Amino acid sequence: MSMIPDAFEYSAPASLTEAIKVLAAEPTSQPIAGGNGLLTQLKRGELTVTRLVDLRKLNELRGVGMNGAGRLRIGALTTLTDVLADPTVRAAHLPGALSDAISMTGDVQARNRATIGGTLATAAQGSDLSAALLALDATAEVVGPRGRRMAAVARLLDGSESLVGGELITAVELAPAEPGSAYLRVANRANLHALCGVAVTVALGADGGVTGCRIAVTGAMPYPQRLPGMEAGVIGTRPPVAMPPRNGLSFVNDQLASAEYRRQLTQVLAERAFAVAVARAHDS
Amino acid sequence: MWRFRAPAFGARGGTLVENVARTKEPLMRTNFTVNGQPAGADVEPRVLLVDLLRDTLGLTGTKVGCDTGQCGSCVVHLNGLSVKSCAVLAVQADGARVTTIEGISESGELDDLQTAIRDAHGTQCGFCTPGMVLSLRELLSTNPDPNEAEIRTWLTGNLCRCTGYQSVVRAVLGMAEGAQQ
Lengths: 284, 181
Prior knowledge:
The complex is a heterodimer of chains A (284) and B (181). Chain A has 284 residues and is of the alpha+beta class. Chain A is 34% helix and 23% strand. Chain A has eleven helices and twelve strands. In chain A, α5 packs antiparallel against α8 (128-135). The longest helix of chain A is centred in the C-terminal third of the chain and has 25 residues, at 259-283. By secondary structure, chain B is of the alpha+beta class. Chain B contains six helices and five strands. Chain B has helices at 16-20, 49-56, 112-119, 129-142, 148-154, 165-180, and strands spanning 28-34, 37-43, 75-78, 81-84, 97-99. Chain B has a five-stranded mixed beta sheet, sandwiched between helices. In chain B, a hairpin with a 2-residue loop joins β1 and β2 (37-43). In chain B, α3 crosses α6 (165-180).
């Protein structure tokens, strides 16, 4: 049992505007939503903050709906449990990469606390959600001291449009339905993060040929990313498809698994997830 | 709040004195209900819900195992949902309804789940049992007749280092069968 070693202040603002103001004014503050990752970092002394700004009272950021453009809009503070239970999500994305990834994330207790915005913002190494949102070509709505912007999840995760001081993800938006999609992974059994996870979406033409495909990997590479070379090798073919081997990509090499093993997992999981996605596309 | 503590596991090096003597922030009033009774305390923001429950309120049925959100010994219900109380700050529970193992049965006797676990020899050292009961209560509230795979998947967040899962699973399966008869 360990008390968090460093003291900090705590506030729970009642509005988004107020939360952003406090976060922007105090650069050593941190927002807290589900807190699963953040509190562990604080306990271990890996992170020091002067203030935690709890987002739990920002009820306007909860819930699932459609935006004006007909895209599915999930409020950033919607818990993973609530996303999975939402009727709109179930109708459009069950089965699918989004519900696959969320149902594999952590355990029940973690999903009861974790929010979709917080899970995306922290993007822990091997986060299942990262791969699913990349393959689903999701965008994030970000609000900060200088206003609102839309950022492709791919650009949040590759660092080119990272969150800056005082900015919060307020919603995640994605296609209203994705008939052929799947997510599969091999997990680290200790922390339940993906050693390698692959999400695939596929669109089939009337002749059964692949007209569109997005493939994204988490855990196996330095940051979650799409695999455009693999996607290009699949588009225009007819399933079943043998994925072309991925050479020239950089895979993580650490105490859990070698880079070569992760490369192999990426290949195998991509083929399997692709097959599941194709089967789901036919079933829909 | 001051109490004797061993140096934090996994935390940076340093002496015990350094670990307890850092600047303290002002205490914050936190009010909530525990097992149907109003409760409250003045706590530092860094105090975890599990520590408030155990050390301040004396509800020691909730256990602390790993303290990193993995083992599930500290599971309680927060507004009706199971959470790991080592992964929630006490101040975050302000205004919430908390249920611990002490409040799981209104009569004060073992409830049907606890009885089933006892009868199936589902408690060995017992340390993980309160967390298992709180976790399984949530499963049974949404799915009164779970199959074995559903029970095992649900228990992902509850570690039993006696490795006594089989008896717990058997207990829950037996409850569903008993209810049908």
